Amino acid sequence: MSSRNLDLDALYRRVIMDHYKKPRNRGILEDGSHTINMNNPTCGDRIQLTFKVEDGIIKEAMFEGEGCSISMSSASMMTQEIKGKKVEEALKLSEIFSEMMLGHDHDDSIDLGDIEALQGVSKFPARIKCATLAWKAMEKGLKEEEQK
């Protein structure tokens, strides 16, 4: 493995641990339009995602839960990235994230921000469900929103 790859892996680990130790948007959104509870029975991760959608735009997103560093940092990163986005944009981002988790080529024209740090999870199939838990909750909630 090249020195550049080792440096990138170390950077990604730092980003993941930063989101785990200092999660963004952790808490309960009292005036949210949707609350979704999901868990991963395989490893015990659980999340409660709350978000507020107005005029097709995600105005706010917060999460509560407990789980491994991958699960909680992914929730932190996801809530950061979807705030201010149109529902369609958030769903597209989730689709790109899913492709990345499966190790498939994905649309790299969209800046993933800190989320890119999770790309190494695709090498560990048992951890993919940890990384995707918050995203699945977001998809479920936004699809419910679209059906209204």
TrEMBL record:
<feature type="domain" description="NIF system FeS cluster assembly NifU N-terminal">
    <location>
        <begin position="12"/>
        <end position="130"/>
    </location>
</feature>
<dbReference type="GO" id="GO:0005506">
    <property type="term" value="F:iron ion binding"/>
</dbReference>
<protein>
    <submittedName>
        <fullName>Modular FeS cluster scaffolding protein NifU</fullName>
    </submittedName>
</protein>
<comment type="similarity">
    <text>Belongs to the NifU family.</text>
</comment>
<dbReference type="GO" id="GO:0016226">
    <property type="term" value="P:iron-sulfur cluster assembly"/>
</dbReference>
<dbReference type="InterPro" id="IPR002871">
    <property type="entry name" value="NIF_FeS_clus_asmbl_NifU_N"/>
</dbReference>
<dbReference type="Pfam" id="PF01592">
    <property type="entry name" value="NifU_N"/>
</dbReference>
<dbReference type="GO" id="GO:0051536">
    <property type="term" value="F:iron-sulfur cluster binding"/>
</dbReference>
